[in-house]
């Protein structure tokens, strides 16, 4: 069983896509184990995207993520990390297949609606950074036997 950190970015929140995105993850069969609507400090944004610190777009990326509230979530399930990445689609909406979240809702790489952890190491780091283990809920979903 895996956990992954998923975030609806400020553009997704402003465009009213929280419900649509949560719905897609629920219908897929993943289990929501943590969620919060929050403003992001520059410090948190810089720590979250630390791997991109030297990239030319880093400043813009941090400006964007701190520009309005985000909806941060933790989803749990078999292969949750890879499954979520495939539901999101490629980073650049130009390459994201129709049917994926970015393929259906985004036009530009700078505003691509959603973030998802890209590996087990990233997921662990990001869940710790945004939630901490105490904020994650453990519960049984009886429907899990059918997924
Ligand atoms: P994310 O971390 O946000 O889930 O996106 P990702 O894994 O698909 O892509 P990543 O390579 O980690 O890039 C992080 C975010 O930086 C912005 N970006 N801009 N201007 C550019 O060439 C460029 N490249 C990346 C995107 O918003 C991307 O989601
Ligand atoms: Mg990434």
UniProtKB/TrEMBL annotation:
Molecular functions per Gene Ontology: ATP binding; metal ion binding; nucleoside diphosphate kinase activity
As for what it does, the entry says:
Major role in the synthesis of nucleoside triphosphates other than ATP. The ATP gamma phosphate is transferred to the NDP beta phosphate via a ping-pong mechanism, using a phosphorylated active-site intermediate. (Microbial infection) Catalyzes the phosphorylation of dZDP to dZTP, when the bacterium is infected by a phage that produces the substrate for the synthesis of dZTP (2- amino-2'-deoxyadenosine 5'-triphosphate), which is then used by the phage as a DNA polymerase substrate.
Annotated positions binding ATP: 9, 57, 85, 91, 102, 112
Q: Under which name does UniProt file this protein?
A: Nucleoside diphosphate kinase
Q: Which family is this protein grouped under?
A: Belongs to the NDK family.
Residue ranges constituting the Nucleoside diphosphate kinase-like domain according to the UniProt record: 1-138
What is this protein's gene name? ndk
- What organism, scientifically named, is this protein from? Collibacillus ludicampi
Mainly resides where? cytoplasm
User: Which prosthetic group or cofactor does it need?
Assistant: Mg(2+)
Reactions this protein catalyses: dZDP + ATP = dZTP + ADP; a ribonucleoside 5'-diphosphate + ATP = a ribonucleoside 5'-triphosphate + ADP; a 2'-deoxyribonucleoside 5'-diphosphate + ATP = a 2'-deoxyribonucleoside 5'-triphosphate + ADP
């Amino acid at each position: 069983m895996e956990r992954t950190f998923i975030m609806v970015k400020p553009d997704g929140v402003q465009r009213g896509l929280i419900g649509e995105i949560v719905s897609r993850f629920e219908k897929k069969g993943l289990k929501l184990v943590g969620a919060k609507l929050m403003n992001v400090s520059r410090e948190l944004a810089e720590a979250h995207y630390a791997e991109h610190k030297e990239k030319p777009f880093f400043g813009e990326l941090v400006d964007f993520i701190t520009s309005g509230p985000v909806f941060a979530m933790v989803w749990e399930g078999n292969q949750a990390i890879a499954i979520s990445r495939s539901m999101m689609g490629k980073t650049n909406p130009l390459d994201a297949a129709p049917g994926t979240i970015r393929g259906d809702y985004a036009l530009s790489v700078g505003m691509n609606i959603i973030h998802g952890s890209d590996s087990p190491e990233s997921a662990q780091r990001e869940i710790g950074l945004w939630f901490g283990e105490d904020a994650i809920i453990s519960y049984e979903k009886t429907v899990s036997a059918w997924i």
